From TrEMBL:
It is a multi-pass membrane protein. This is DMT family transporter. Residues 1-124, 147-272 form the EamA domain. The chain crosses the membrane at residues 23-42, 54-74, 80-102, 109-131, 143-163, 175-197, 203-220, 232-252, 258-276. Keywords: Membrane, Transmembrane, Transmembrane helix.
Length: 295
């Protein structure tokens, strides 16, 4: 999961470089790269690409595609800090939905740790350069897209729980394969109505975006298959730290003291939750299936 958050941060940096292209067009190229890479990997491994638990796989692909589209829509119409902050509700939605979907309880102390992490994300959002635009959201001008962002987080929680349910049933790359399998035709239709031909270095950034996405999806899928939801889901919060660092380094963004206070809370919540769940579940650690170890 730590590797996944780093790779997704690289993907976000590529998307930021491609701000002049329509969001669904970026998703289209991202999906095109991923479906080719996934299919090639499955052929090399000798794994049937369409799997066996097709209802669950379609559920994972559909919810993942819808969550991605909602997230990009919120990014286009909300201040960046607001959209990213709302998206960080996804790990909480994953753990809470997991209570009913995969019967994994969230212990009382974990609610406190989740609260610390979420409070840190809010502080980071308040202290980031884009926070000035939050006033417009508070005034009610962008409530629709704020709701779309929340919907993205909830649907992401459904998608991650589907991944967890597929543990031991399907190869991780098969699960990854279903996301572009569904998102590619959906975005292709959308591109018929909104298209802007990439120019020059745009193609390099699109290629890098696809590569980062593919590797991140494989790493994330493996994490959700091999460990408890409540333990790995909050590690997604570390992505905000990478976003802050890349913003400073690549885009010259500066941050206020609230953002750095938020970093401390995020690290505290994530670290305490990992320590607590690790201590509680150490005697019953989840072993990796043999085929995944071999892969």
């Amino acid at each position: 999961m730590l590797l996944s958050t780093v790779l997704f941060a690289g993907m976000n940096a590529c998307v930021k470089q491609l701000h002049h292209l329509p969001a669904l067009e970026i998703i289209f190229f991202r999906s095109l790269f991923s479906i080719v890479a996934s299919y090639a990997a499955l052929r090399r491994l000798g794994v049937a690409p369409f799997g066996h638990s097709r209802a669950l796989l379609i559920s994972r692909g559909s919810t993942g595609a819808l969550a991605l589209m909602c997230y990009f829509a919120s990014l286009q119409h909300l201040p960046l800090a607001t959209a990213v902050t709302v998206q960080y509700l996804a790990p909480i939605c994953t753990a809470v939905l997991g209570i009913w979907l995969v019967r994994e309880p969230v212990r009382p102390w974990q609610w406190l740790f989740f609260g610390l992490s979420f409070g840190g994300v809010l502080l980071v959002g308040q202290g980031s350069p884009a926070a000035a635009g939050r006033a417009a959201v508070a005034a009610g001008s962008n409530w629709v897209y704020l709701a779309v962002g929340v919907l993205s987080a909830v649907i992401s929680g459904l998608s991650y729980n589907a991944i967890r349910t597929l543990r031991g049933r399907e190869h991780p790359v098969v699960i990854v394969f279903y996301l572009p399998l569904i998102s590619l035709p959906l975005t292709a239709v959308a591109c018929l109505f909104q298209w802007r031909t990439p120019q020059g270095l745009d193609w390099l950034w699109l290629l890098a975006c696809g590569a980062f996405t593919q590797a991140a999806q494989v790493a994330m899928t493996r994490a959700y298959q091999l460990e408890r939801l409540g333990r790995v889901a909050p590690l997604n919060y570390l992505g905000i730290l990478y976003a802050l660092a890349l913003g400073c380094w690549l885009f010259g963004e500066s941050f206020g003291p609230l953002a750095y206070a938020g970093i401390g809370l995020v690290l505290a919540g994530v670290g305490l939750n990992a320590w607590y769940t690790g201590r509680r579940s150490a005697p019953a650690a989840v072993p990796a299936p043999a085929e995944e170890v071999a892969a």
